[in-house]
Amino acid sequence: MSSGPGAHSAPAPDENTNHTGTTAGAAGPKPSTFSSLRIRNYRLFAMGQLVSNTGTWMQRIAQDWLVLSLTGSATAVGITTALQFLPMLLFGLYGGVIADRYPKRRLLLFTQAAMGLTGLALAALTLSGNVRVWHVYALAFVLGLATVVDNPARQSFVSEMVGPRQLANAVSLNSANFQSARLIGPAVAGVLITAVGSGWAFLLNGLSFIAPLTSLLMMRPAELHGVETAPRAKGQLREGLRYVRSRPDLIWPITLVGFVGTFAYNFPIWLTAFTDEVFDEGAGTYGLLNTLMAIGSVTGALLAARRGTSRMRVMVGAALLFSVLEMAAALSPSFWLFAALMVPIGVIALTFNVTANSTVQLASDPAMRGRVMSLYMMVFMGGTPIGGPLMGWITDAYGARTGFLAGGLISAVAAVATGLVLARVSGLRLRIDLRRGRRAVAFVPVPGGKGRESIAGAGRTPAASQPTAPAAVPAAAPPASPSPARGEDRDHRREVLA
C-alpha cells in the first residue's frame, strides 16, 4: 500500500530512525519482531503506554464490576460502555480534523492529562463511598470526549515516530503493548476489588498517566518524521470524507471494522454475564477470562509484527474466523472450554485489528491520516453506543449465550460480504478446490476480467507510488490523479487481496 506523498517530508534518517518512502512490503530487509523499539522516541512512547495501559485495564475491569454491583444489570454495563464511546460517534471526525491541524505530541500531552484526571475523580468518589451509577456514566462520557482527540492523534503519531517502513511493525507492537498490560491489569484489578474495593484501581489508573506524559516530554522533536499540519480552512471534514469515499482500499476495510467493532467486540457485557449468570462466579473469574484473552491477543500482535506486511485477505479471513470462534464460545457447554476459547479469540481478534489498522494507515496520505484514522476509530469504537446497549438488551432478555452468538453471527455475515465485494472490485473470484496439495479456498483472477475501481491505487499520487518524485510534473496536473497504468494497478490490487 502506498504511504502517501507526504511521506517524503521527513528528515534524513539517522541512527535513531529507519525511514524510507516505500511501502511496508517494499524491497529491503524485513522488520524483525521488535525492530521499531530501536527508535528512541518510539521506545519512550512504548514504555509510557505500557504503564498507562495497565492502569486503563485495571479501571476497565473495576468499572464494569462496579456498575454490575450497583445495578445488577448487564444493560447498565452496556450503557456505561456506550457512554464512553458515544463522543467518538458524535464528534470523532472533528477529532481527526484537530489531529491534522495541530502538532500531535502537544495534543497528546493535553489529552493524556485529561484522561488521568477522570480516573482520579472516579477514585475520589468511590473511595469516599459517595459513588452512584450516574457518576460512572458521567465520567465515562468525559473520558470519551478526551479520546475523541487522543485516538486519532495517538494512532497517526506512530508514523511520525517510526516512518512508513516500520509502521506495520509499530502498530503491531502497540497492540502487543496494550494486550500485555491486559495480562497484568485485570489480575491486579481482581485482587484489589476483592481485597480493598474498586476505588484503589481507579486511583492507580489516574496516577499511571504520569508515565506517558513523562515519555512525551522526554522525546526529541528533531528525530520525528515531520508531517506538515493542515492549515485551518473550511470544508476539511467533508474533504476527509470525500477522500475515504473515493478509496476502495480505505472504505471497505473501515466498513468491516465498523461491523465487527459494533457487534462483536462487546466483551465487557458478555464476559460479565457469563461469569455471573452462566458460571455463577465472581470478579476473580472475570479477571481470569480477560487475562486468557490477553494472552491470545499478545500472541496475535507479536505474530503480526513478524509479518511486516498487511494483506486484505488476512484481514477478511481473520474477521470470519474470529466470528466463528465467538459462536463456538457462545455454545460451549463447560466453563473450561469457554475459558480455553478466549485464547484463540484473542489471537484472531488482534490479527484482524492490527491488519486493518496498518492497512488503512499505510494507504492514507499523511496529510489526511488524522481524519482517516478518526473515521476508522469512530466506526470501530463509536459503534459501541449502538452495539453495546443492543447486545446488552439481547443478553438480558434472551441470555448470555444468545447475545454472544448474535454478535458473532452478524460479524461473520459482514466478513463474508466484505470479502466478496473486495474480490469483485479487484477483478477476482472465489475458488474452492478440495484436491490434495491445493489451497482449499482462494481468490483467483476472473478470466478476461478487468476489475473495477482500484483497491491499491485509487487517489494515489505519483510521489506516493514511486520511491522518488518524477523529474518534471506539468504545472496543470491535478495533485491526486492516479499514475499507475490500468494493468499494473489491477495486478497490484489483486496481489494485495489474493
UniProtKB/TrEMBL annotation:
Alphabetical list of SUPFAM superfamilies matching this protein: MFS general substrate transporter
Q: What is its main location?
A: membrane
Which segments show compositional bias classed as Low complexity?
Answer: 462-475
Gene3D superfamilies hit by this protein: MFS general substrate transporter like domains (1.20.1250.20)
Q: Which UniProt keywords apply?
A: Cell membrane, Membrane, Transmembrane, Transmembrane helix, Transport
Q: Bias category Basic and acidic residues: which stretches?
A: 486-498
Membrane association type: Multi-pass membrane protein
Pfam families, per the entry = MFS_3
Q: Where is this region: Disordered?
A: 1-32, 452-498
Tell me where in this chain the Major facilitator superfamily (MFS) profile domain is found: 41-426
Any transmembrane segments, and where? 65-95, 107-127, 183-203, 250-271, 283-305, 312-329, 335-354, 375-394, 406-426
Report the InterPro entries cross-referenced here.
Answer: MFS_dom, MFS_trans_sf, TM_effector
**What is the protein's name according to its record?**
MFS transporter
Protein source organism:
Streptomyces glaucosporus
